[in-house]
Amino acid sequence: MTDARWQAVDDFLTRKLLPDDPTLAAVEQRAASAGLPPISVSAMEGSLLQILVRALRARRVLEIGTLGGYSGIWMARGLEPGGTLVTLEVDAHHAEVARGNFEQAGVADAVDLRVGPASESLAAMREAGETPFDLVFIDADKSGYPDYVTQSLALSRPGTLLVLDNMVRGGQVIDDGDDEWGIQGTRAALDVIAGEPRLVATTIQTVGIRGYDGFALALVTY
Ligand SMILES: C[S@@+](CC[C@H](N)C(=O)[O-])C[C@H]1O[C@@H](n2cnc3c(N)ncnc32)[C@H](O)[C@@H]1O
Question: Which of 21, 29, 120, 176 is the most exposed place for a label (fewest CB within 10 A)?
Fold first, then answer.
């Protein structure tokens, strides 16, 4: 089995299951033209995120790592009426591109984009006593993952679902000592999850146009 096969199957399934979406195609195009790296979730992964948002009937979703807004648009489209996506981004240029994309996708009214280091934005949200989130999607710098899990827990309630991206990284997650892609942050986040009795967790290993990777899903139980 090769990456080429994974990509071909991903393309096939995307064509089979997802309607053509000129809005999202334009969002990807604008992000590429603005020089953003091609590291958003794939269409199939975006669809998974939207299904989770819809299954939870989520009104409040938190995203850590906005980039150009691609995954944010998938999730914002799945919110209950009147719901909000709060999305955190440290890079002002990424945030500016995302703002334009949220406007173009018609979801800007449902999106609250906050610019700054996520650890600081999260601390400010805790300090302000913000209403807990229904779903949190963590997809930013891997070294920050342990802190993002801990802080997200403080912004959660029983029933909140935490979703972490890039948890397998081509299998590097089992390579103790290898820190390409900040895999030690990924491993430390798994330790935080494993050591937190309020969480029940699993992982989904994925292959596709983004290679071999995976999500962690952790449910807040009490
Ligand atoms: C993988 S991309 C996010 C992709 C996006 N979720 C999507 O699928 O469309 C990671 C993003 O996290 C941002 N980021 C990195 N470190 C951050 C930090 N400390 N605080 C907030 N955002 C950060 C990066 O600038 C980048 O835009």
Answer: 176
- Which pLDDT tens digit goes with each residue over 187-217? 999 999 999 999 999 999 999 999 999 999 9
Cα torsion 208, 20, 34, 74: sign: negative
- The rounded Å distance from CA 86 to ligand 1 centre is 13
Whole-model pTM: value is 0.97
Distance (Å) from CA 94 to ligand 1 centroid:
8
Sorted by where each starts, the structural domains of the chain and their CATH numbers stand as: 3-220 (3.40.50.150)
Which atom, in ligand 1's list, is nearest to the CA of 144?
Answer: 19
DSSP H stretches of helix in 34-111: 43-55, 70-76, 92-104
40 close to ligand 1 (CB < 6 Angstrom): yes
